[in-house]
Amino acid sequence: MNxxxxxxxxxxxxxxxxxxxxxxxxxxxxxxLSNIQSPFEYQxxxxxxxxxxxxxxxxxxxxxxxxxxxxxxxxxxxxxxIGYDIGTVHLTGELVKLQIRNQIVNSxxxxxxxxxxxxxxxxxxxxxxxxEFSTLxxxxxxxxxxxxxxxxxxxEYQGNGEKAVFYYTAENRIDFRTLIKEFALQFHLRIEMRxxxxxxxxxxxGGIGSCGRELCCSTWLKNFKSVTTxxxxxxxxxxxxxxxxxxxxxxxxxxxxxxxxxxxxxxxFPDFNKKIHTEKGIAKCxxxxxxxxxxxxxxxxxxxxxxxIKAKKIKEIxxxxxxxxxxxxxxxxxxxxxxxxxxxxxxx
Length: 348
Description:
The chain is an alpha+beta fold and 348 residues long. Helix content is 27%, strand content 22%.
């Protein structure tokens, strides 16, 4: 009998279930230290990373020294301390130590792993996971009837089904005391409302980015860093909000990926704000080409004509300008006429 995958509970080895097979491994991580034996009978690291629904992962203390492998379903202590929760072992051993060091978490707050989940516990867990979608639809309908300016984006049941966490996004503070009462009457369980950001919402829902790949936040990116329009300006990208924003309606995280490389390359360029003096007047920088080490200048009185000059040449001109204003014109060999949409090379 083929083992069911975590998340979809279907036999993904079947050919007709290819899409679900991809979804199951959306958060899969390669434990590249799993086959490396510790020298001198070193005791195995007793902290385990457990994955729950979607992108939620937490660290747990394996106090009972249970032998665990990646993919094992375990029963763990919940945050509330009431009942139990169920998740899948995501990482074990020395790689967990590296993850803790990268995320800078307090090891004193880790909850315990109770045991490997029994067959009965797994069946209860699967039953409530199947109810999550219908619960989400009902919850959205209730929130809409109460005219609350919030969006309920996900629901997650606790392993024993006694509690449900409702994730929502909102611009302003929400008074959902009436909403919790309605939820308790409708679903007959303990309710927890947890507000998340728009980036976290995109990570939970998932999707395909403009690059054609799965969203970084829903696969491997866990630490969200602030992204500003300066990241686009340094990379000479046009400030087109529709192209620069992702599915979360925020600036794309990938704008920061190559930013350091651009900042290092820009160090070899002269100051963009400095103007050069020529025979025909003063010229200012309009654009740069980081990879070709070129800069585009235009006269202040004639901004529609741009001149392409090497960055090294601009440095020489600026050094001459420190002594006395230079009496040379900008070369017209690489000049272009700027219009609203078209750049025309006059040298052709």
